[in-house]
Amino acid sequence: EIVMTQSPATLSVSPGERATLSCRASQSVRRSLAWYQQKPGQAPRLLIYGAFTRATGIPARFSGSGSGTEFTLTISNLQSEDFAVYYCQQYENWPPVTFGQGTRLEIK
Amino acid sequence: QVQLVESGGGVVKPGGSLRLSCAASGFTFSDYYMTWIRQAPGGELEWVSYISGSGDTVYYADSVKGRFTISRDNAKNSLFLQMNSLRADDTAVYYCLRPYYFDFWGQGTLVTVSS
Question: Which of chain B's residues have a Cβ under 8 Å away from the Cβ of A94?
């Protein structure tokens, strides 16, 4: 099973600034990596798939990068609605697909 | 538009059973593997089970193997999860999803296992 590790657990950033979230896989997942955003009381929402492709309707301030074992989600010009929990997920080797433990992005 | 609507959750005692259902629409259901993912109260997301489009191939997480059974009815565009011998650590919101990354989410159905 591929273990996904996200860092940091909590990230404090001011509105208008840039947030950088990291995700590491225990073995290569090539570019089979997705990012999700989850707000309280809601289901996760797909942001990025294929490591860097934005899902339908996702603003351009969200960008993904990386391949193999190291991935980054960058959120530029943070808006109030961006403060949430973010998860990464690999789907290269399944079953199982596996998720990171999440990064909480909070307002500084 | 793809829609996935889960139902069947509730409160059950340890050792009890529940059957979850998922009504799918907006896509050709039988063309897709389907999966159940659960999210524990602390936020951890865990894959539970997969089933192929025809229903002849299934996979289970080790944590549920032998206790849960996934099935589908392609004529009714429905996915099911029979959960037996439930334990406290099965408490979670259960989502049915179309793999392999998850672009459409329903509201989920909450399963609480408690005495």
Answer: 47, 50, 99-100
